[in-house]
Amino acid sequence: MKKATRPEEQSRLLQGQSITASASPDVLLVDMPTKIARILAYMLAPCNSLNRFEAELLGDHCLHSTVSDLTHLYGLEFRRQDEKVLTRFGNPADVTRYSLPESQHERAREVLARMLAKGKGRKEVAE
After folding, report:
1. How far, in Å, CA of 47 to CA of 43, rounded?
2. pTM of the predicted protein model
């Protein structure tokens, strides 16, 4: 797994500060404690959205379940857009593109901060 090369980006993510569009999937894979936190952090970046194939880059193999958890367990509301994409075999597939409306960003940042605090506590116990 490739590590983030910019120390300031690593430290910002570890401290739970805002995630920007420059947060690449590689950085999120290293710095977010869980799959659900990676997806939420990615969705908080301006103009970001995901479908199930794109979520693979973040280690999520069942994006619909992750979005369902974020909706039902944390009260977040996602925008859903049906679309057709080509699979790696060239066949069209119906998928859903998920995005987080701006109105949900404040709540999502609170949820992510709790996830990061919980993840930090787990790391300290393990060390």
Report:
1. 8
2. 0.71
